[in-house]
Amino acid sequence: MDTMRIDLHAHSTASDGTDTPAGLVAAAARAGLDVVAITDHDTTAGWAPATDAVPPGLTLVPGAELSTVSIDPETGRQISVHLLAYLFDPTAEAVVVEQTRLRLERRTRLRRMAERMAADGLPIDADEIFGLLPEDSPPGRPHLAQALVRAGLVKSVDEAFADYLSPRRGYYVARRDTPVEEAIDMIAAAGGVTVIAHPFAFSRGATISEDTLADLAARGLTGVEADHPNHDAPTRARTRQLAGELGLLVTGSSDYHGTNKTIALGECTTAPEQLEELVARATGFQVVKG
After folding, report:
1. Residue 63: strand pairing partners
2. 3-state secondary structure 27-55
3. N or C: lower Cβ tally within 10 Å for the chain?
4. For the Polymerase/histidinol phosphatase N-terminal domain, which residue ranges apply (predicted)?
């Protein structure tokens, strides 16, 4: 049991990864994983094709990464919170309505950013970008980053994010995300469990405070992702300590995006007993065993 390798945060082409859902589960098996979660942004569109392709010996945990926001009580500033939701009922009305809104929000945002770039003389075509996306896929800045790479304006997706897609540039457009408290309630009502992804990844921008994490734990948050490529060793240790104090489960995951990032599947993993508890607390959906 201790040798199980569990990665609970991975993306497919249903959002901003480069592996199809079927390709994702195949890649997970090749990477020697026993369990992988599909957690595309604001969509469950990858669940069915991933389920149909789960190879023998692999367990799939259906999930999603929800775009949520927290308000800093001291400054009033909005802070982006990536909320991993697992094993919820994807047909729950509140979930369907909010995921549909968020996907539309993402499409509108991407088009506005692409049009700003085109108006500034950059060789970026919004229609071309959307033409390369799967139908109803929730587009994100990585898709625009790929277009910048194809146009020869940057050498990598990371460089695009550091330059053209940075909030410091005039091309940036903000999103209207779900209040994190509402998202936690929504997923709980749909029988699912919630985990905050990379909660203290300061390199990614502003993060929630420890006090806010305590408030969310009291609200019904299930866990925190302590082991993540953007968490250094002291941050991982502190996150685990906080989880213990707040009664939260602890996960570890790669945040795999295929070739959009240099991170490999299984780079960070979750302890089997933590996954067992997550599954035990969920009633909205079941894991899929190959």
Report:
1. 39, 86
2. HHHHCCCCEEEEEEECCCCCHHHHHHHCC
3. N
4. 6-70
First-to-last C-alpha distance (Å) of the chain: 18
Question: Residue 67: exposed, middle, or buried by beta-carbon count in 10 A (0-12, 13-18, 19+)?
Answer: buried
Q: Which of 163, 159, 157, 164 is nearest to 122 (CA)?
A: 164
- Give the H/E segment covering residue 141: helix 141-150
Q: pTM above 0.85?
A: yes
Instruction: Say how far apart CA 99 and CA 106 lie, in whole Å.
Output: 10
Task: List beta partners, residue 71.
Answer: 78
The two tokens of residue 79 are: 């802070």
Between CA 279 and CA 90, with CA 288 as vertex, the angle to 5 degrees is 75
**pLDDT tens, position by position, 39-96:** 999 999 999 999 999 999 999 999 999 999 999 888 888 999 999 999 999 999 999 9
Residue 35 forms beta bridges with which residues? 6, 59
3-state secondary structure of 272: helix
User: How long is the chain?
Assistant: 290
* Residue appearing with tokens 């367990």: 59
CB 225 within 8 A of CB 251: yes
Per-residue DSSP letter, 90: T
What Cα–Cα distance (Å) separates residue 188 from each residue in 93, 182, 185? 13, 10, 5
For 189-229, the pLDDT digits (tens) are 999 999 999 999 988 778 999 999 999 999 999 999 999 99
| Dist CA 13 CA 257 (whole Å) | 9
